[in-house]
């Protein structure tokens, strides 16, 4: 249970770091780039990945797709936190679990039981309530959490495909994906330096390193939690998603004074119910 709690904390702390970085006018794209420097270093020294294990049959095209998507979705995550807050962004990120569920149904003809159908329907209703703007808020950038939801959902599908290729250790695949993501993030930073006349600032380095550390620890503790609950992975699945939504809401409301209407709070409550039904569907 300790690993699960630590994974939840690390996930929410990533959002907190992005929120705090706004006060210093830090650059999200540069933070994301430095984040991968830390993640790559930690992955190398923790898992000792062997790139020689990558053979001709390795899903390089999937690695590349994930490596391209990750920094882009991460950038929208930062924008979503900026405009919509931690609570709504964390909820959108966690509700992204419905994308692979729908893909399994529509693309792979996976059978749906009653619990899963109810969970998906409640999840979509939750999303509508969560992203609804308060009446006094004229600037509702709902597109950012929507992209976060869809983006992380697609990334989750691709990571599941990577996990199916067991010849290469999952941690080696993860290291290779981080390398590609870092290269893509560098391209984004250079593009912005040249076109938007942005400056490379050292204040983005500590924020990036912190994001990388907690992002990596989130993955590490999540993997350890799955090993600890090897006979009941649904416990980790439900606990992680519910924990992040609850903690993200508390942090956003009490520490950053994020405004949540009664409709938004109802949506967050529905999100928890949806995750419970998805959890129950895994037990069938």
Automatic annotation (TrEMBL):
Q: Where in the cell is it found?
A: Membrane
Note the topology in the membrane. Answer: Multi-pass membrane protein
What keyword terms does UniProt attach to this protein?
Membrane, Transmembrane, Transmembrane helix
UniProt keyword Zinc-finger, yes or no: no
Superkingdom of the organism of origin: Bacteria
Q: Which residues form the EamA domain?
A: 2-131, 147-279
Spans through the membrane: 60-79, 91-108, 114-131, 143-168, 174-193, 205-223, 235-256, 263-283
Record has Transmembrane as a keyword? yes
InterPro entries for this protein = AA-Vitamin_Transporters, EamA_dom, EmrE-like
Q: Which family does it belong to?
A: Belongs to the EamA transporter family.
Indicate what this protein is called per its UniProt record. Answer: EamA family transporter
Q: Which organism is it from?
A: Flavobacterium quisquiliarum
